[in-house]
Amino acid sequence: MKVILRNPRRELDIEGDATVRDVLRRLDIIPDTVLVIREGELLLKTDQLTDADTIELRPVISGGAR
């Protein structure tokens, strides 16, 4: 599967089927620090991914109101 990372933007290829949690573990990314998106849909950590998928990892950014 293709994994697109943001900040900085880069692309990685990961072979085989896996859950979102498994992919994040392989990339040494803490699950609560990113949003995982496939075809415009936000995924859960337990969702299954296939070798043909393209996913995007966006960093979670939070801020407060004044």
Description:
This protein is mainly beta and 66 residues long. It has one domain (2-59): Beta-grasp domain (Ubiquitin-like (UB roll), Roll), CATH 3.10.20. 11% of the residues lie in helices and 38% in strands. It has 1 helix and 7 strands, in the order βββαββββ. The strands form 2 sheets. The protein has a 5-stranded mixed beta sheet, with no helix packed on it. Strands 3-6 form a two-stranded antiparallel ribbon. A hairpin with a 2-residue loop joins strand 4 and strand 5 (41-42). The longest helix is centred in the middle third of the chain and has 7 residues, at 20-26. The protein is globular, with a radius of gyration of 12 Å. The mean pLDDT is 94.
The CATH superfamily is identified as Beta-grasp domain
**Residue fraction in strands:** 35-45%
Determine Rg (CA atoms, Å). 12 Å
The major pleated sheet works out as: 5 strands, mixed
CATH architecture: Roll
Number of DSSP helical runs? 1
Task: State the total count of DSSP E strands.
Answer: 7
What is the topological layout?
Elements: E1 2-5, E2 10-13, E3 18-19, H1 20-26, E4 34-38, E5 41-42, E6 48-49, E7 54-59
Parallel strand pairs: 1-7
Antiparallel strand pairs: 1-2, 3-6, 4-5, 4-7
